[in-house]
Amino acid sequence: MVWPACRGGGWKWKMHTMSGQDRDEENDEFLVLACDGIWDVMSNEDVCDYIQSLLLITDDLEHITNQVIDTCLYKGSRDNMSIVLVTFPGAPKPSPEAIRKDKALNSILDKIVREALRVNRDNMDFDELLRGMSALPYFPPGGGISAKRSVIESIYKELCPQHADSVSMYP
Questions:
Q1: If I label 133, which of 14, 15, 18, 48 is the partner at 20 to 30 A Cα–Cα?
Q2: Torsion-angle region of residue 98: left (phi > 0), alpha (psi -120 to 50) or beta?
Q3: Residue 91 has what DSSP assignment?
Q4: Residue 21 pLDDT greater than 80, yes or no
Q5: Please, which residues bridge with residue 83 across strands?
Q6: Are 80 and 119 within 8 A, CB to CB?
Q7: Rounded to two decimals, what is the model's pTM?
Q8: Sequence-distant (≥ 6) Cβ neighbours of residue 57 within 8 angstroms
Q9: If residue 33 lies in a helix (H) or strand (E), which one and from where to where?
């Protein structure tokens, strides 16, 4: 029994009711508990797709949850953010192929940023660089360019240290 406060005034005894879905132990991969700051900028599908792609690269759940929070910051979330990720036996496991593809993507991004800045280093600010790269098809599902912003940012700061202070955490 739960003794909740009644909004209409006074106290009433009420039976605690729970509704929920049974777990599908064969197919469930993970459970995400997160604050509004996550859901304000990513849909359920985006969060799930992004976490699935990260689980194929690492089994470090702290790293994965930090990546989700950073990605949401880069997407412009201004609300409180916390996330708990619980994996079940059916969760994706790191795959050598996915790890190779992620490293290859980072290498491609490095080449694209270096070429863009080689051509237009003095006149291209970081936001302009991001806008120019945002339509590329390479980014992790659910995360988009925001998922690789830290990679792009580190290359930009290396090549344009004089503009490093102009790089903002927010879009």
A1: 48
A2: alpha
A3: S
A4: no
A5: 34
A6: no
A7: 0.82
A8: 94, 98, 99, 102
A9: strand 30-34
